[in-house]
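Recall the central idea of this unit: under ordinary conditions, the amino acid sequence of a chain determines the structure it adopts. In this exercise we apply that idea directly, starting from the sequence alone.
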Amino acid sequence: MGSEMCIRDSRKDIPACEMNGLSITPFRGLHLLLLLLTAAAALLVFFLLRKKPEARRSRLLIGMCLFNLALFTVYKLSLSMDAAYIRAYYPNGFNIFNELPLHLCNINLFLIPIGLWKRNRSIMGFSFFVAPLGALMALLFPEPLFSGFSLFLPRIFGYYVTHAILVVCGLSLATLGFYRPDPKDIPRILKTFGLLAVGAHLINLLLRLTLCPEANYFFTYGAEIGVLKLFWRIIPVPLLYGLPAPLILAGYIYAVCALSRLTQRAEEAPFS
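Accordingly, the structure predicted from this sequence is:
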C-alpha cells in the first residue's frame, strides 16, 4: 500500500496502514508463532550441523552471524526513514551513531564470530550466557513502538528477525559443541563483561563530546529499566552504578552451569 493511501491513527499519529496486516503483539498469535519458530530454528541448526566436521560447523555458524550483522545494518539504516521511530526517539533528528551494535545484547553480533574464529573461551562463554538471554528478553518484552504493528514494516521485521537469529546463534555455541558451560569460567566471563562495559563507556564519552550527545551504550549513564533504575538510585554515578550487575550475572551463570550438569548426568545415567 502506498504512503499516499495511509490514514493517520487519531490516537497515536501513526499511519493506520502500519497497524494492519500481520500485526505482532506480545503473547498473541503471530508473536507466539515467532517464538516457536525461533526454538525450532535452534533445533534445526543442531540436527543439521551436529555431525558436520568442526571446521564446517564453525564456518556455517560464523556465516549465519555475519548474515545477521548485515541484516542488522540494513534494519538500522531503514530507521533513518521511519517517521514514527524518529518522532519517538529523535526529536532533534535521527543519529546513526546512536544505533551502533554496542549494547549488551547486539554487541554479540560480532563477538560470536570473533569468539569462534579465535576459539576464545572467554568471549564464547560471555556470548553464550548473554546473547540468548538479552535477545529473548527483547523478543518477549518489546518497547511500545515495536508492538502492535505489521510484521512487514521494516522496523518490526528487522527487530524481531535479528533478535531471533541472535538467540539461535548464541545457543548454537553450546549445542554445536564449541562451548560447554563451566562455573570455572565465571571469573573470565565477568572480566570480559567489565572490559566491554568500560570500553562502551569510553565510546559514550567520546561520542557525547563529538557526534552523539545522547550516546548511552551498555546503559553506562543509567536507564529507566527495572533493576538498573534501582542501581542508579543507590549509586548515581555513571558506569559505577552498575557494580552490582556482575554479581547477578555470576549467579545466573552458576545456575545455568548447575542445570547443564544435571542434564548431562541424567543423559549419562544408565536406565535401570
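The radius of gyration is 20 Å.
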